[in-house]
Specification:
three-stranded antiparallel β-sheet, 11 helices, 3 strands, extended
């Protein structure tokens, strides 16, 4: 059945008398919900992206007018531009789509290249002629030594003090006094390490794909969790200014949207024209200049103060991002079956 154009005398949601198509109390549309599947789908897409010119009117300021979207939103002019949450959802979806899910072209995809590099590091036993002198790879992490013997046909990594199987580990734990046994957390970690190491030794290459997929699926959550950190640093930098925490958060959302949009375009262009290798550097420079000017316009401090605070903000965010990526990598290992 096609969508009806009849207007109801009362709001079907809250019962308020209607003077116009939309309810003055709750804002619901007064049209009856009798629509085709296509109309319902189109309305959902339109509601999610708010494409009634708001996205298009937001693109110009987002790309070319640093700080304008945030200033207008904080001034109360919010109907003319796309809501920050909707904007973040749209551009983050576009970013992760272009970063990980573009169709493959000739040659290997970026994901395959990464997985091949990891796979070669874990499973290749041969050593190139230029590095014949390198026989063992040993890394010390805290009190543990992780070694990789390239002469032995035993792929994987070897942790001193770590048993080769869960049965051996469990037996070793039972022989210890109860107060010396590993707690729940250490026991869980070691059990997972034994499981992963067993798969590596058996040359189970599917583990590489599982690790990459886990890292990729958790990455959007890491970025979202960094937004409050970004706003908190701004709050501390401008603690004497009359700004609420949520205002810093809106500024952070707009900057993240710009980054998502710029790098999505860069990924698309490089996918279509692989010879444009320097495009990411141009995009990164564009974003840095834009963010610096936006920060100056929003917080209205001198260029020197803004420059100092901008660098502190960038360093803090970069450190937080590195920590987040490391935790994501650890979580990806931990969630492997």
């Amino acid at each position: 059945m096609s969508e009806t154009e009849s207007i109801q005398p009362h709001c079907l949601n809250c019962g308020t008398v209607l003077n116009d198509r939309f309810c003055s109390h709750c804002g619901q549309d007064s049209k009856e919900f009798k629509r085709s599947v296509w109309n319902v789908f189109f309305q959902f897409f339109e509601t999610f992206t708010d494409f009634d010119n708001k996205l298009w009117s937001s693109l110009g300021p987002l790309f070319f007018r640093p700080g304008m979207l945030t200033k207008k939103y904080l001034e109360g002019k919010r109907k003319s531009f796309l809501n920050p949450i909707q904007m973040y959802a749209f551009f983050s979806f576009l970013f992760f789509l272009t970063a990980f899910y573009l169709p493959e072209k000739e040659g290997q995809s970026a994901q395959e290249e990464i997985q091949k590099g990891i796979r070669d590091g874990m499973f290749t036993d041969s050593v190139s002629e230029s590095s014949d002198s390198i026989q063992d790879v040993t890394v010390k992490v805290g009190g543990a030594k992780i070694s990789r013997n390239r002469n032995e046909n035993t792929p994987g990594f070897h942790f001193n003090g770590l048993e080769d199987s869960y049965a051996q580990y469990d037996s070793a734990q039972r022989r210890k006094p109860e107060e010396e046994r590993d707690g729940w957390f250490v026991r869980t970690i070691k059990t997972k390490m034994i499981s992963i190491n067993g798969r590596l030794k058996n040359k189970d290459e599917t583990i590489i794909g599982e690790l990459f997929d886990g890292f990729k699926s958790n990455l959007p959550n890491i970025i979202i969790l960094l937004l409050p950190v970004f706003a908190l640093v701004l709050k501390l930098l401008y603690v004497r200014r009359n700004y609420y925490y949520v205002e810093h958060l809106i500024f952070g959302i707009h900057l993240h949207c710009l980054a998502f949009a710029l790098f999505s375009i860069a990924f698309l262009v490089e996918w279509a024209f692989p010879d444009l290798e320097e495009l990411l550097n141009v995009v990164y420079l564009w974003f840095l200049i834009y963010a610096f000017v936006a920060m100056k316009r929003i917080y209205c401090q001198s260029w020197i103060r803004t420059f100092v605070k901008f660098n502190f903000l960038g360093a803090t965010y970069t450190l937080s991002l590195i920590i987040g990526l490391a935790l994501n990598l650890f979580l990806s290992f931990f969630l492997v079956n």
